[in-house]
Amino acid sequence: MLDYLSQLWETSSLSPHGICLLWRPELIWTHVIADTLIGLSYYSIPLALAYFVSRRNDIQFGWVFWAFAFFILACGTTHFFAIYTLWVPDYGTEALIKIVTAALSVFTAIALWPLLPRALAIPSAVQLQRLNEELTRQVSERNAALAALQAEKAERLKTEEMLRQAQKMEAVGQLTGGIAHDFNNLMTIVVGNLERLEEKFRDDPTVYRSVKGALGGAERGAALTRKLLAFGRRQPLAPKRIDANELITNVADLMRRAVSSQVSVDLDLASGLWPIEADANQLENALLNLAVNARDAMPQGGSVKVQTQNVVDPVIPEIVSAQGPYAMITVTDTGAGMSPDVLSRVFEPFYTTKPVGEGSGLGLSQVYGFVKQSNGYIDIVSTPGKGTTVRIYLPRARPQVDPAAETSGFAAGFPLGQPG
After folding, report:
1. For a tag on the chain, would you pick the N or C end, based on fewer CB atoms within 10 A?
2. Using CA atoms, how far apart are residues 202 and 315, in angstroms rounded to an integer?
3. pLDDT of residue 143
4. What is the arithmetic mean of pLDDT over 241-262?
5. Distance CA 22, CA 27 (A)
6. pLDDT value for 409
7. Do the beta carbons of residue 19 and residue 28 sit within 8 Å?
8. Distances, alpha carbon 125 to alpha carbons 62, 130, 132, 138, in Å
9. 18-25 long-range CB contacts below 8 Å, 24 or more apart?
10. In what order do the strands lie in the sheet with 377-383?
11. Do residues 171 and 216 make contact, with C-beta atoms less than 8 angstroms apart?
């Protein structure tokens, strides 16, 4: 081995490579310049690879980059040594450098082929972009589904709350109606006996005054029971076919007198409004109650607007949807409005936000009971500081049938079964 190495580095019997080129300057310097540029490039590439791998700790198969760096560095060294051997025949050292370069080349080549399937399995930039777009789409769909789920949950909670409110109002109405019915029977007996006493002691001022006071109190109690019966939907009604526009026009003067001079009452009545079947007196009382409530909500003045409109299939929050047709009466004021907490209890009997002695808390509950007993619906919307809107939906009256036209299949100018 020592003899082999000594012979490998023996240069006395060898000639430099420049002799082969006859020391022609154009050949010598062409080789020098070319090998220098190649060697510098080969030294630059490993430095770039080493810098890249050292800065990117997440890179996969980093050892391959280092293998390429050492292999290319060895190749660059052979080119620099080729310049050296143009003048110095140190071909043994050059051979050892080539052996190292060959070993690095063989190792890199052998290691590279088994790595190719794993390297090809790495997603490309286009594939990563597509995967990212797909992930973004799935995230958007998930967010949309979550938003829809939240909206559905909110709607379900709202529906459950409305159902609980309706059940509570139904239970309160039944309890109130039952108590008011029995109390009304008692008040009938009391009023009847007091009227007999009034007739009997008419000539006795002292007794007469006492009986008269008791009779007045009993009549106020009877009026209270009628309001409670109205809320409990057990009051006696006398429904008939009426023109709501005509009734509103007639009651408008009473509404104007019920409110202060600072409050205006305006009418916006739809032409061709469908007739309704309801108790005219109770509807007038309902409109007056709404006008008085609007007045109390506008101590500094404002306006009350009464509108009518035909509605086929209204969307009513209380029941989500209702099959019409209905004639809708809307009463809107520009008052102080109500908070959501007050609005949720506005139809409860005896509930009022007015000071003690200024309200019984039965006005809106009486309107609620009348509308329900008339097979209608009532909806109230209020915004604090902006006002309140009450919508009353009363069912359209059935078409009147002309007995003389029954045999011909026509009633009031329309075929049977169609609205008139």
Report:
1. N
2. 59
3. 92
4. 88
5. 9
6. 42
7. no
8. 19, 9, 10, 20
9. 18/86, 18/87, 21/86
10. 263-268, 302-311, 326-333, 387-395, 377-383
11. no
